[in-house]
Task: structure prediction
Amino acid sequence: MELSSNPKGQMITGSDLTRRELMDLAAVTGAALLGGQLMPGSVPQAAAQGSGAAPTPLDLVLRVNGTEHRLTLDPRTTLLDALREHLHLTGSKKGCGLGQCGACTVLMDGERVKSCLSLAALVEGREITTIEGLAQGEQLHPLQAAFIEHDAFQCGYCTSGQIMAGVACINEGHAGSAQEIRDWMSGNLCRCGAYDHIVAAIQDAARATGATRGG
Amino acid sequence: MHPFTLERPRDLPAALALRAQAGRNDAPAEYIAGGTDMVQLLQEFVRRPERLVSLAGLLDNRIEAGPQGLRLGAAATMAEVAVHPAVVEQFPVIAEALLNSASPQVRNQATMGGNLLQRTRCPYFRDVGYAACNKRAPGSGCSAIGGENRWNAVLGTSDNCIAANPSDLAVALVALDGSVEVQGPGGQRVVRWATSTASPVTRRISRRCLNPAR
Result:
């Protein structure tokens, strides 16, 4: 990988360096600074080294979207990182890495959870559903179609988490009114502010699936 | 996260035998159940165990109401407890406290025991970049006193620490005068929650069942 500066002092990269490789490089060589605050999880590796070597990798089987995957993982691997980095299912997003934003929301045995707060090694045997597993071939899930119809996303980064949480919200019977949806979607943030349209999409899909209850 | 070995003991005595001293910053081992707080603490290097002991399958997850009151298993999730008919009908303050906590996703994963043992959300405690934190490093000082502390405690503080207890369930238990069954290497005992929250006892809780009196 070739890194050099242009006349403005901006770093430019070799043509074969992907964005993902650059992020890995930044993590290895130093902490990523964002807005003056240290990004969670980006403490320099020197600080991250413990007294011993890296832990023995674990062999485990994850069941994702109906398929079993045999993986060998560092025990520290979160479910989110297993999905994104090892299974290359990048639909689930790491918005905060701390369980606050909900962009990592997946279903585990049908229930919504934050995959960034789950350790992959501890979810063996659970049925995991990601955004990639929602559509049936080319047939979109009703909530996915509703999100498009209601323009319920702008940048799209929170969207997969919103949809997974929304599916669960409807299935739980918590999509009876706009206020109820707002309460029960409180685990998913949208920095673009598409909330009104997200609520409308969920209401629409709930009606379409006949799943309105509560209020 | 600090490198750790993941331990998955088959029973509670084995888990206790690993001699975790949860909550101490020099502890070699930590416990994990739902993981919704522990994973955060690990990610941010607030906890740096060498062994992480999974309590999966080892704790009581029953929710039972009877003549003695409500009994909540330590492994019952926040979501399960919040909608349980006995809780909703007879101890609504618990349901209300739980439903006002966290998020639906976290409530599906988080356990009763973990909710009571979660660490404070004082931003200085949670950011190891701040060396002065008496809770993390006794004697190092308190960054919150004189810092950004509008979310910290105003009652029950000391000159050393103004961190607030983050658990809404804990507040409900104080109101209900609940008790906690604590299991440790030395045996089992019942601790009245209201008097125990500030004590080192809670730091050594390794199995908890909640037993509020009516």
About this structure: Confidence is low (pLDDT under 50) at residues 199-214 of chain B. Residues 2 and 48 of chain B are 5 Å apart (CA to CA). The radius of gyration of chain B is 17 Å.
